[in-house]
Amino acid sequence: xxxxxxxxxxxxxxxxxxxxxxxxxxxxxxxxxxxxxxxxxxxxxxxxxxxxxxxxxxxxxxxxxxxxxxxxxxxxxxxxxxxxxxxxxxxxxxxxxxxxxxxxxxxxxxxxxxxxxxxxxxxxxxxxxxxxxxxxxxxxxxxxxxxxxx
Length: 150
Description:
The chain is of the alpha+beta class.
C-alpha cells in the first residue's frame, strides 16, 4: 500500500503532530537497549515493529499520554511472552428516543508462557483497571454517566 505523504501531513496537522486522535502512543524498550516510539495511528505499525524485532523480545512496553508525555502504564515482557496493544470501542445503544453513548478504552497486555493473559486498561475518566472486565466496567460507567468520551 502506497503512503500518501500529503494525507499524512494533513492528519499530523489535525492531530498535533500525530496521525490520529488516539490520546496515547506506545514506547517499547528492549533489554538489548533498542527502543522505539510508535504512533498508534500509523497504518501497518504492528507488521513494521514485528519485522524490526520489537514484538516478541524481552523488554518493557509503555503506554504514554501524548499530552505531556506521561507514562500511564507499563508492562514487563519476558522471553517468549506475547505483548499487545488494544483500543476497544464500547457503547450503550439508545432506546425509546434516548441517545446512545460511546467511548474507547485503551490497554496493553501480554500472553504469558503458561497461557495466562495479563490485561491493563485506562478509561477516559482516568480510571485504571486490570483483568478481563474492561468492557463491562466501561459500560457500567457509561450507564452511570461518569465516563466521558475522549
